[in-house]
Backbone:
């Protein structure tokens, strides 16, 4: 009597861009036959993961805000279901952490001049971990790099006994940081007129 209605709950449609992972009593079934099976559909399409602006302390040391995007897709549906509870959420959290750690070890000048090289380094680190989850990283893009006028106090980053020497080496490797420090010194003496300074 309930066949016309119950059949809608018994049948599941797998689209062309999805791959089914069928399990029976907790075990994956490769050869499907009759029985109480559970089906998990895995989206095999490429997904875009937006990485919002993050506050990053560079090696200079400076404070910058960086955002980006990661393109990834599930390569192995079986691993994406059995090795990780939520592949999308795990990839998102891992991408944010690796991006922040990698950019934090770079100087601002190197980040700006070799942006593609740094992005490929992030991609390799990500792909090395997500491969165990059946996820492959196709591309990483660093979109915007915004530099703040505020400069990290050297005493908070470099040990006091070697602060002057190491800070001079940082400034020598990154001319941009010298300009920003001069700008900070000028901003310490406020002017009655408001002005906007743009770095090109």
Residues:
């Amino acid at each position: 009597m309930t066949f016309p209605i119950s059949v809608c709950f018994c049948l599941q449609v797998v689209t062309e861009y999805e791959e089914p992972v069928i399990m029976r009593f907790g075990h994956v079934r490769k050869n499907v036959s009759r029985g109480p099976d559970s089906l998990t559909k895995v989206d095999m399409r490429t997904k875009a993961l937006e990485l919002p602006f993050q506050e990053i302390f560079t090696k200079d040391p400076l404070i910058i805000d960086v955002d980006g995007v990661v393109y990834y897709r599930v390569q192995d549906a079986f691993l994406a279901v059995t090795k990780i509870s939520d592949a999308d959420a795990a990839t998102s959290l891992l991408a944010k952490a690796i991006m922040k750690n990698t950019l934090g070890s770079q100087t601002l000048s190197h980040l700006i001049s070799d942006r593609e090289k740094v992005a490929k380094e992030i991609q390799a680190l990500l792909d090395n971990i997500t491969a165990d989850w059946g996820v492959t990283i196709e591309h990483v893009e660093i979109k915007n790099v915004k530099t703040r006028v505020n400069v990290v106090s050297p005493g908070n980053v470099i040990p006091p006994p070697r602060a002057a020497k190491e800070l001079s080496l940082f400034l020598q490797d990154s001319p941009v940081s010298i300009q920003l420090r001069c700008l900070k010194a000028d901003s310490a003496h406020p002017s009655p007129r408001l002005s906007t300074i743009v770095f090109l």
Q: What stands out?
A: The helical segments are 3-10, 77-82, 87-104, 108-113, 115-130, 154-157, 163-173, 175-187. The domain at 44-147 is CATH 3.30.479.30 (Tetrahydropterin Synthase; Chain A).
